Amino acid sequence: MNFDLSEWLNLFVRWFHIVAGISWIGGTYFFNRLDRHMTGAVAGESAETSGLVWMVHGGGFYKIEAQKVPKPIPDDLLWFKWESMLTWISGVLLLVIVYYTGGLMVDTDSTTSLGLSIAYGVGTLIAGFAAYTAIWRSPLGRNEAVGAAVSFGFIVGTAKLLLAVMSARAAYLHIGAMMGTTMVANVWMTILPGQRKMIEARKAGREPDYALGARGKRCSRHNTFMSMPVIFLMISNHFPTATYGSQYPWQILGALVLFGWVAAKVMRDLE
Predict the structure, then answer these.
(1) Which pTM does this prediction carry?
(2) What is the dihedral of CA 58, 15, 267, 179, to 10 degrees?
(3) Which of 52, 65, 131, 235 has a CA positioned 20 to 30 A from the CA of residue 246?
């Protein structure tokens, strides 16, 4: 029996990445659906209650109460953050194992060096979140349809660029990684800091800035929509003829992104 360390490492990291992703994205869909079913505060509930929902699952009944900012702040507040970071870290490890050191980053007949191709890939992960922030915090982002259209144009344009400097398979994965990185950055650079500031204000006796919560909620909603295209793109390497290996790779990628957004909306709105 031959022991191949790289193959076992690849398998273990993929396994970890899938489990972490299920935990993160499943939680995202759960809370977005929970928000949709919240009813307004009813008589007899706490004055701080902004919504209420009853659920049944696994033989148990659960009463979930939503508050803008608890008063007082509970000591055992449960944060949902490591699911996203562990998904991202394992995803980056996979990029390194499978693409940056695995021989799949550039085609054999490519005139682009491996180093330059990797630089484009890493730069794309950073540029993606920068572009997302610029779009959705500008006047363009005030209109959901306009913001989505500009974001789609950026995604397709980036895909065309990457297809010219790396293998088509790597380009597909990097577009998915770009959106996944944006999702994680939304959690750690927008949602969590905003929630901490609101908690600090409450503890200091000040009225929290509820706009921070609204901004975080929008990022969470965007993460829900990005998650479905990300999953599509991550499994695209198993279907080369239909996706990156076709005659129309960037057009198909764009169609997958649009289809993913529609699928995410259906999933989000599912009763």
Answers:
(1) 0.89
(2) 140
(3) 131
